[in-house]
Amino acid sequence: MSERSLNILIVGGGIAGCSAAIALSQRGHAVRIVEKQDAWRFQSSGIFVYANGLVSLDELGLLDEILQAGFPVPAGRNAYFDHKGVPITDTFYPSADNGRIPAILGIKRAEMHRVMAQRVDALGVTVTLGTTVDAIRDEGDSVRAVLSDGTEETADLVIGADGVRSAMRALIGIGLEPRYTGFGVWRSVHRRPQALTDKIMMMGPGIRFGIMPISDDMLYTFGTLAEPKSRFYDPAGWPEHMRTKFADFSGPASLFLEELGPDSQVLYTAVEEVGLELPWHRGRVVLIGDAAHASTPFMGQGGAMAMQDAVVLAEALALHETLDGALDAFGKARLPVCQFVQGVSHAVGEAGAKELDGDLEARNADLRKTAQEKVDQFYGRLAELNAEAETALRKGAASG
Ligand SMILES: Cc1cc2nc3c(=O)[nH]c(=O)nc-3n(C[C@H](O)[C@H](O)[C@H](O)COP(=O)(O)OP(=O)(O)OC[C@H]3O[C@@H](n4cnc5c(N)ncnc54)[C@H](O)[C@@H]3O)c2cc1C
């Protein structure tokens, strides 16, 4: 298959879809994206990209532009405070490639998308906005997709990169619905005081408030707490809700909470998870990104997992003789990594939600003792799993 150029249809132009389009067209495949939104619209604030995600961006050839558009946190420092602003401890995330790749970068999500969309365009990928797939027919040696504009597309491979609420999952007969996690996330965007350069995590009892620079002049804040299922908040009231919900926070949070008003950029998200068992493909259709493995955001890794899916999928297609072999190997390589991230992220969220007021001193003492060790263990294990996945991907190719 390494020599053959495939005709590939990608459904969804988010992080996973754009990354896949870049990785695959760089390897000579003919790629088209269909995206449901009628214009690129990113109603979001910021996103963290840790070193492993930046490595994928490097492999996609986007690292320099992303570093320019975002804000690499000096020394990868994360400063923990309690909710009253008393410092608890600092941790440092690992960089990659002997420090060439920073430990952690904050970036406005729309900026990340701008960089990706420009590259997609420069590579000649056709992007059709305002369009989705209504039906899929696998015809053995090709797959036909009926698009919502009434046209039909024949492809060698269809990639479902349509996010946590993926319609492609159902179209290929997977009846898995996203699971509500019990958490809501409130995010807001502000001007960055020049002295604020760390990632900040403020730890209340069962409630968190974080601050992260995303550019030379902007930062975003994110507050997480338990929220009842199906709780609807009218977007017009989001700034006021955010201010009220995190009113117990002071110290570094105060300035930003006080700033919140009707014109603030605030976003509320009820967090859902997807844990799809293998296989992630049916015939010639494969699911990637959140469509296959949406995670809670506590490790800030969902975007990185989506980008790495794209890189590994392109590699699997190059290494394996048959499409089925490549898709099978792709899923097997990615599942352990994504499940590990999901599991740790889920556990972090659950542990935080169970805290009570009276537990805080013990919690803080534990943080001082173990927080750095936990960071090191997480990234150490992630690196091991990635190395195992790479070996498995290559071994399968040699034997199959
Ligand atoms: C509150 C919160 C905070 C997060 N913070 C971080 C973070 O700091 N760092 C990080 O790495 N990750 C973070 N994540 C996770 C990250 O956002 C996701 O993992 C990532 O966006 C997944 O990319 P994706 O392309 O798979 O899905 P999406 O980003 O959801 O993109 C899917 C795309 O498909 C389109 N689409 C949907 N349905 C259809 C359809 N039927 N047809 C055509 N197109 C369709 C959508 O319009 C969209 O463009 C966070 C998640 C949440 C909920």
Automatic annotation (TrEMBL):
Keywords attached to this entry: Coiled coil, Monooxygenase, Oxidoreductase
Pfam family for this entry, one: FAD_binding_3
Gene3D superfamilies reported in the protein's UniProt record: FAD/NAD(P)-binding domain
GO terms for MF: FAD binding; monooxygenase activity
Keyword Membrane on entry: no
Domain of life: Bacteria
Residue ranges of domain FAD-binding in the record: 7-339
Classification via InterPro entries: FAD-bd, FAD-dep_Monooxygenase_BioMet, FAD/NAD-bd_sf
Oxidoreductase keyword on record: yes
Coiled coil: 368-395
Protein name as it appears in the record: FAD-dependent oxidoreductase
